[in-house]
Fold these 3 entries.
Entry 1:
Amino acid sequence: GNSVTQMEGPVTLSEEAFLTINCTYTATGYPSLFWYVQYPGEGLQLLLKATKADDKGSNKGFEATYRKETTSFHLEKGSVQVSDSAVYFCALRPNDYKLSFGAGTTVTVRA
Amino acid sequence: SQTIHQWPATLVQPVGSPLSLECTVEGTSNPNLYWYRQAAGRGLQLLFYSVGIGQISSEVPQNLSASRPQDRQFILSSKKLLLSDSGFYLCAWKREDTEAFFGQGTRLTVV
């Protein structure tokens, strides 16, 4: 089946620290991969995506590269801010209908 | 532009009472619609999805049901709530060629 495994949190960082959240997936075929972000009290917003192997998605200083050989889509940001505090979800879309999410990683950035 | 409305934002209901959460989408037609639940400390669980009016697919057996009486309306219901139904419920829509767009969520507390 299709599944997503992401790094468990919570993660607490200081401002300007480097952030990595690991995400690996299991899927048949060639799924699209996503990172969604959920700010406190809100729904999810798409952060970035990649639709094929070796694609790099980027947005708001975050990056993730679709690695088919390691079935991974790790999220990185070189210098986090307090406003990056949120829950981050890795997700895969195996077909046109479904979107499967990881468990989410809570990130807290301290000033 | 497309928007998704979900209400109410918060709800406190006694055990055994009925539930009705409503989600409507504007600015698109024939979307795929989804209900997710996010339990405390856990990730997103897909509850139901719908690819058309009257078409409902259930992902997990549970105390809830869903209906799609109109193209852009998706309703989550229960006849008798359980304590374990507490959580954060998210409605989402997507089309084959788009990402998923989420509502702001409903925080349900069953007491």
Entry 2:
Amino acid sequence: GENVEQHPSTLSVQEGDSAVIKCTYSDSASNYFPWYKQELGKGPQLIIDIRSNVGEKKDQRIAVTLNKTAKHFSLHITETQPEDSAVYFCAASNRGGADGLTFGKGTHLIIQP
Amino acid sequence: ETGVTQTPRHLVMGMTNKKSLKCEQHLGHNAMYWYKQSAKKPLELMFVYNFKEQTENNSVPSRFSPECPNSSHLFLHLHTLQPEDSALYLCASSQLGQGALDGYTFGSGTRLTVV
């Protein structure tokens, strides 16, 4: 089955700086890669996703890149703000997600004022 | 409110109790999922229901029993649990159509403590 590795487990950055979280996956058939943000006491919330037919996608301060050859994808957050502090999860799936998503262990992002 | 509602939010139960977790989605989705979230571990997929049919059971112990009476409701029946089953149980829904997935919508979870 699919295996997703996520690094780092904790990331502390100064407010206004950029943050990068990286994930690798094992199943070359995976074709859907979402990122989720989880705040304390809440369920994970989808913030951006990318499909295997594109290499990069951007939504305001958030961008995701995908390298299918190397089987890795990354989340980039620019101009970080205090409200970006949360746990971020990457995930991967194939068959259109019909078998469910496989998640990474999560990255605790801390924005220092 | 995310469109996926889970009840109860918190549950404490003894190892000999029987209880049920409930999930309801108001998004018109056709797939629902149960995930287990434990400290310092990835979210673990437990069960998948596509169009009300269970399609995935990731070697989950029989003390967890899912039920999906319709495409809007999902239950997780619990009996004779162990302390290591204490975790946050998350329900999610999605719309599966032609081609790729359109992301999950998660509920806020049920924090389960087994004593």
Entry 3:
Amino acid sequence: GAVVSQHPSRVICKSGTSVKIECRSLDFQATTMFWYRQFPKQSLMLMATSNEGSKATYEQGVEKDKFLINHASLTLSTLTVTSAHPEDSSFYICSASSWGDTDTQYFGPGTRLTVL
Amino acid sequence: GDSVTQMEGPVTLSEEAFLTINCTYTATGYPSLFWYVQYPGEGLQLLLKATKADDKGSNKGFEATYRKETTSFHLEKGSVQVSDSAVYFCALSDVEGGSYIPTFGRGTSLIVHP
């Protein structure tokens, strides 16, 4: 149980285009979903926290207009990187917590974004 | 704010060696504590957790005990295998504004040689 999927697993795009990443909780309803960016040498940066039907809460220093987060249902959250540039290239990971286990996060497999 | 500090890696061991990865935390509340593992090219997987003082989390031969007096949650395994090579993240989850908010350490890379 507690499986989270992400799609796509890898994406390559041209500079200036927008990319959407989906995060789904497959076998549970997610109270909260989180989006992370992982930098080289492991460091995991929390970008934002989202609850179904409400606006995401962004961490300090994360541009809301650049990283659009939509949490339309209890099983789906999307991250859209708008007007992507090479410096946005990174490994993006989502996680979700469930009603019955709110302190624990279950992670998706991650999405490798490369912006040319 | 809350923080998690874990030992820098990489930690390099021979197969069947004893493993300890140190983790200490600071928190304003009474957090739950976690260890997550990340294999190359993958997302993080929950390895074990503990929710209150003196609780011991265990899974796949790994153990960690919630020590409130020393604010620590060190990860141990008696005999590591090559397949344990991965990055290990210590984390806490504390209530903030009515929701659980996570805080992660920077991760410790473990390399196990045959």
